Amino acid sequence: MAACAVFLLCVLSLQHAVVVIANNVVKRAALTDLSEGFCRSWKFGANIVNDVLYMIDLDGGIIPGDEDGSNNYLVELDLTSAFSTDDGSKYRMSLVDSSVPKLKDQALWSDKANTTLYSYGGRGASDTSADEGLWTYTIKNQEWKLQQASIKPVRLVGGAYTNAPDIQAAYWLGGYQSSDTTLSITDKTVDYAAGMIQFNTTTGVFTQLDAPFTPVQQGALVYIPVGEQGILVYVGGEVPSVQEGINATLTPNAWDYVQVYDIAADKWYKQTTTSSVSSRTEFCAVVEKDPSSSSYQVYVIGGADFRSNDVLYDVSYLSIPSFKWYRAGSLDEGRMSLTCAPYGRQIFGIGGRLAWADDSEAGCYDMPAFVYDSVSEVVREEFDPALSIYSVPSATADDIHDSPYPASWADPALASLFISPTNSTNSTGSASKENKDTGVNKGPIIGGVVGGVVGALMLLALIFAFIWYRRRKGKRQGGYPAEVQLNRDDDNLVGVELPAQSATSELEGSTERSELMAGEVHELDGGGSRIK
Ligand SMILES: *[C@@H]1O[C@H](CO)[C@@H](O)[C@H](O)[C@H]1NC(C)=O
Ligand SMILES: *[C@@H]1O[C@H](CO)[C@@H](O)[C@H](O)[C@H]1NC(C)=O
Ligand SMILES: *[C@@H]1O[C@H](CO)[C@@H](O)[C@H](O)[C@H]1NC(C)=O
Ligand SMILES: *[C@@H]1O[C@H](CO)[C@@H](O)[C@H](O)[C@H]1NC(C)=O
Ligand SMILES: *[C@@H]1O[C@H](CO)[C@@H](O)[C@H](O)[C@H]1NC(C)=O
């Protein structure tokens, strides 16, 4: 409705079939599916709601049959029947309302009732757009709207995030602002966030929560429904040497512990883990529950070694509450910068790169999504909604049975979330009771309501204290040093997607080399043999 305020815009957005540009060149119609092929995109926002896998942050820049970086697609896969993930005709595409900024690397969250999607964060595609806030997509009427809020978190990228629709919340931890996220940074400054954001998907309230280990980038955050409101588990990530500045050095966190957040108690615990796992960055993570052992497996899929930049095939899982790592069957090919979405035992891996590069060296793959079957531990060619439910391998089940808990807990209160007070000793059993009513004392809370009325979302702000909410003016332009390691082959960027001064974004910069820019033919020319 808002987008249709001007009648002409309305007509254009409804038709969007053929656009006549100034010099009378008729551009190709926007795609309705991927029958003509795909190449790659990093990084999608993805979420499964009501048996539909929604994917955002796809432009047409290097997609055969489109090749228009200004197109901004919503892609949908219907999960009610079996299909081959390599069948391009199954990927239903529609153009996102043109008023929505074209971004990459956003979080895509959903509400408990499965009526609304929320996109937050991300980096600019082709250029940096004004940071207006979080956008909502109402599934029923396919309408995008800016969520009206007088105070809101700034746009961040490179954070870890998770959706927890059962408790009507979504979380974002860490990440940073740079010239790719905000117009107020014009040099290579990277401004890291502190803490964690909770977004209540029912009320629209943002809450600033503590995270004792920020600043940090990357890593993964997952939700596990234990205890009163559930816990968040954070794994991996890199810590910058300075919170705000240029040329920060990044140090990867060790993988022999995870950070666990008890939502109801508003408390973090640093819990050690056992057995080994390959440390990595730009991976994805999802949770699978094993009903028979009441354990939760946090699968980490792909990624890349931060120091060697080698892309990983590895799939491993952390079993909780034993907090022990296991290795599962690998992917068929390495994949980094991917997004994951679980549907029962089948885990969709979406988008990403085959190599740590910003140009055509990042490779092409057949279609945006593949399916990793966490029971058979292989990549399947077919998605099948009828597959049986998840269970852990029997060797793991035996292991969990023999030692269900870690040898040493970070805190008795953490143990109490997993060990029923009735059946445990008093020392561990008491903590969960004490925690009952501490949830209301969380950091600064933004009060408000989200009205469901068209064009009339309201947010009444009380107080806000994101410490990364800053403004600065810079003099020079450029990419961001946080991921300067991505920029290894700057000298040889002729004919590839990225301008040399653009350290990271596929979409960044102002040249036709960009994967997403109007002149995207350069990549198709240079790396045409890779396009399938
Ligand atoms: C929302 O969609 C998910 C994914 O399809 C499903 O598991 C869940 O049960 C749905 N919730 C509601 C309230 O319909
Ligand atoms: C979000 O708001 C709803 C409605 O007020 C509330 O029931 C729910 O507990 C809130 N979620 C969290 C995680 O606080
Ligand atoms: C950042 O590193 C580059 C390349 O090493 C150097 O030229 C530049 O002076 C550094 N900037 C700052 C602010 O340290
Ligand atoms: C926990 O205690 C209850 C009540 O004493 C009992 O019925 C239940 O079987 C116990 N559960 C376990 C896992 O021991
Ligand atoms: C817990 O402590 C109380 C008194 O402190 C005692 O009466 C009770 O038996 C204890 N229960 C267990 C399960 O140890």
Automatic annotation (TrEMBL):
Query: According to the lineage, what is the superkingdom?
Result: Eukaryota
- Signal peptide region: 1-22
Transmembrane annotation, as ranges: 445-469
What's in the keyword line of the UniProt record? Iron, Membrane, Repeat, Signal, Transmembrane, Transmembrane helix
Please provide the Gene Ontology terms (biological process) for this protein. Answer: glucosinolate metabolic process
Q: Which organism is it from?
A: Aspergillus nanangensis
Which taxonomic lineage does the organism of this UniProt entry have?
Answer: Eukaryota, Fungi, Dikarya, Ascomycota, Pezizomycotina
Instruction: Name the chain's protein.
Output: Kelch repeat protein
Region described as Disordered: 500-532
Listed Basic and acidic residues bias regions = 510-525
